[in-house]
Amino acid sequence: MRTTRVIIGLSVAAALFAAGCGTTEEAGGGEPAANSGDPVTVTDSRGKEIKLDAPARRVAATEWNGVEHLVSLGVMPVAVSDIKGYEQWSSAAPLDDTPTDIGTRGEPSIDTLGALDLDLVIVTDSLTEGALEQIEAKIPVLLIKGNDAKDSIGTMFETLDMIATATGTEDKAAQLKSDFDAKLAEGKAEVDKLGATGEKVAFSDAYADAGTVSIRPFAKGSLVADVFERIGLENAWTMEGDPAYGLAQADVEGLTQLGDVRFWYMANDGEGDPYTDVLADNAIWQNLPFVKSGKVHRFPDSLWMFGGPLSMEQYVDAAIDALKA
């Protein structure tokens, strides 16, 4: 979905909603079980304390990293924005058939949210003007960051812990973090074994408009690039990305600044592949060193670039496969 990628590429923080959650079975459908457990207080990204009578059981999420965090914690959200888009772009934490679709990520249906008997809504600041206040008037709201390029992996864990506290799933969060650290160690060892430690990688995605390709470099501070660095690879992009997602902007001429690096990218069959669909016959593209040397590699579909630990583990595996290709 081009709209999704353009929005994030312009550094608009992704909108996240979450409404009361509990176990996967309880949150997804049927009659909600009564909340149990001690009262919960969690401080969100605004520095605001959110007080709940018990861990949230029924949750709606509008941004897909929030959705992934919930599902990975064992909490199936009651509602999700743009379910079709989530299923197209994210495969690490699949939804079952119970969530209700609440519209777009930037402008979810307030009426639908209000009718779902939610305990909590998790949002970021990319909602349309006034939406946060409308939701917060009816349902507790937890504001989380989409990302922070100063510490993308730390922000990912901070968000995971925040949602885990709100839903009473702290033990599961600890296991996810431990598994992620183990995956990084495994990936780093494999990169070293392949003799690829220190190799330069330029990761990107792109979109086409009227035959013009806009490229989005994942610069330092972007989550995927930072994960690659943790396993021993070097980010080939030298430009500065935006302060939230670490994303920059480039065109095909800008690619001439890269040497004979590994050029990896993300695309999706549902949206098309600008590199092969538009640039295949472009003279500049054809003469780039990494194109001529065969170092261009498209990653598998449905690896969400802005997800949680499970998506990032997929990127570690995909990076190893690319090195072996």
UniProtKB/TrEMBL annotation:
UniProt lists the family membership as follows: Belongs to the bacterial solute-binding protein 8 family.
List residues of the Fe/B12 periplasmic-binding domain: 58-325
Which Gene3D superfamilies does the entry link to? Nitrogenase molybdenum iron protein domain
Q: What is its main location?
A: other
Per the record, the domain of life is Bacteria
UniProt-annotated stretches for the region Disordered: 24-47
Transmembrane region positions? Answer: none
Signal peptide range: 1-18
Query: Which keywords are on file for this protein?
Result: Signal, Transport
Q: Which organism is it from?
A: Actinophytocola glycyrrhizae
Q: What is this protein called?
A: ABC transporter substrate-binding protein
Q: Localized where? A: Cell envelope
